[in-house]
Amino acid sequence: MSKRIAVLVTDMVEEIELTDPVKAYEDAGHKAEIISDEAGKTIKGKNGDELTADKGIDEAKASDYDALLVPGGFSPDLLRINPKNGDFAKAFMEAEKPVFAICHGPQFLVETDLLKGKEVTSFVSVRKDLENAGATVKDEEVVVDGNLVTSRTPDDLPAFNRESLKLLK
């Protein structure tokens, strides 16, 4: 059964952490939509690639999607500026829908106030933020805690995609 995945990003996203999982999801028959500040926005990636937002955060509803992907780079930190992004992610976590976050992506999930007691991993520089939010941080290629899948870096993408796809079944 095909699932709809919201991909929440803005400028300075680590492109491979968006494109690689999206390709894996689409190859498995799922559909991914890029959500950003506004529909049609050109998102400038960390390495110079450009992507186009399918929907703006003001029109996106978590209830329309089966899962959420938060790629890394500097995008997660910039997403924290608009509280609507945090509310969007929080709706997925409260509904116990799958949430996939890689690299700096888990840092953005601090905005949900729902990391207390969760086991996660992330890029090394944001681990203290996750601990301060009450999460237990592990240094593993992928950590699955219920419907939450987290990974550290692009090197972990094969494990991240594998575990994400398991939750989409």
Overview in brief:
With 169 residues, the chain is of the alpha/beta class. The protein has six helices and eleven strands.
What can you see in these coordinates?
There is one protein chain. The strands form 3 sheets. A 7-stranded mixed sheet has the order 5-2-1-6-7-11-10, sandwiched between helices. A two-stranded antiparallel ribbon has the order 3-4. By secondary structure, it is of the alpha/beta class. The protein is globular, with a radius of gyration of 14 Å. It has 6 helices and 11 strands. It has a single domain, classed as Class I glutamine amidotransferase (GATase) domain (Rossmann fold).
Write the layout of secondary structure elements.
Elements: E1 4-8, H1 16-27, E2 31-36, E3 42-44, E4 50-52, E5 55-56, E6 67-70, H2 75-79, H3 83-94, E7 99-102, H4 105-108, E8 119-120, H5 127-132, E9 136-137, E10 142-145, E11 148-151, H6 157-168
Parallel strand pairs: 1-2, 1-6, 2-5, 6-7, 7-11, 8-9
Antiparallel strand pairs: 3-4, 10-11
Largest sheet: 7 strands, mixed
Q: What is the percent of helical residues?
A: 25-40%
Shape: globular
Structural class: alpha/beta
SSE run: EHEEEEEHHEHEHEEEH
CATH topology: Rossmann fold
Q: Count every beta strand, where a strand is a DSSP E run of 2 or more residues.
A: 11
Q: State the strand order across the main sheet.
A: 5-2-1-6-7-11-10
Distance between the termini: 7 Å
Mean pLDDT: 98
Radius of gyration: 14 Å
Portion in strands: 15-25%
